[in-house]
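Q: Putative 8-amino-7-oxononanoate synthase, please. Structure only.
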Amino acid sequence: MTPLLDPLKPYPSARLREAMAGLEAPAGTAPVPLHIGEPKHPTPPVITDALTASLAELEKYPLSAGLPELRQACAGWAARRYDGLQLDPETEILPVLGSREALFSFAQVVLEHVSDDPKPAVVSPNPFYQIYEGATLLGGGEIHFANSRAPRFLPDWSQVPETVWQRTKLVFVCSPDNPSGSVMQLDDWAELFALQDRYGFVIASDECYSEIYFGGNKPIGGLQAAQQLGRSNKGIVMFTSLSKRSNVPGLRSGFVAGDAELLKAFLLYRTYHGSAMSIPVQRASIAAWNDEAHVIENRRLYQEKFDKVLPILQTVFDVRLPDASFYIWLKVPDGDDLAFAKTLWQQAAIQVLPGRFLARDTEHGNPGAGYVRIALVADVETCVKAAQTIAALYRR
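A: Structure for Putative 8-amino-7-oxononanoate synthase:
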């Protein structure tokens, strides 16, 4: 086996299972899974209808570049969503099998490791989506972290040494952020672009939570920020997905957009990688990107959950409405996030994810320690009951 596999760490959910081994929930109590960010709202009929209506097209081999109609639907959505953002569907958009697959494979295209040279560096926020680390290590790179801390929970790029910036090939950003739900503002993008101009790295902008926002405060995207700052999209690739936006995590559908030169290389890689999207999934994706009614209803459901859950938790905890996403990033009272998660499981069968499992230890500490991530993916009633139980346990 390749030695590149050796440094890979278990996924946060696997670490949680290991930490909970031997601990029993109360007898007869059904588990309340709030630890995994898997959307549970019903899949909209506009998507399932389009999928089933095109099943006959399973007899055809799909192209890695996708149907022209799909790329056009993605470009149309981007223009509507990001204030007139203009993307060429022929050269600046590429369908992918969900953002996770694309984030991983894109790193393999960007990173180039010559054995006699120092490893290429990749910079990631911390806490972070673990695929960033795995993609880096399996691409022969070396990962460095910029910790995110209160009150804004956005990466502190000043923690990255100059010697690391000088060999950085790729920077992952996640806005809206997983796990905190924080959103980069235009000034934050300007700061990152200034670093890009100085060091010449590629930006991979993970925006899969961009459509779960509140009060009409649409998160700005990386390509949109570049446009507003009078820049081109050179060196920037945006990653987005239907999983959270449209409640179809099993569809495995999204797209990447941005720098045409990078996407040309990415398409070549994907042609060999064998990651073409089936035509029925493409038809369903076209229907999804062209419809906003179901997305508005999706946001309304999440808003309702936050409106009912946060006041309950705020009677006991220091917790706020995220800028976006369906996560609550909750600061635990005694600072021990793992003990907090164990207590909830043993006392009430409630599953939450300790923040330490979403981050790495650094010389500046582990920025996830002392927090837990709660995913409000269950129905409203379940989320409210869970919040009431959690508050009652810690009000004693």
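A: Brief note, in case it's useful. The two ends are 52 Å apart (CA to CA).
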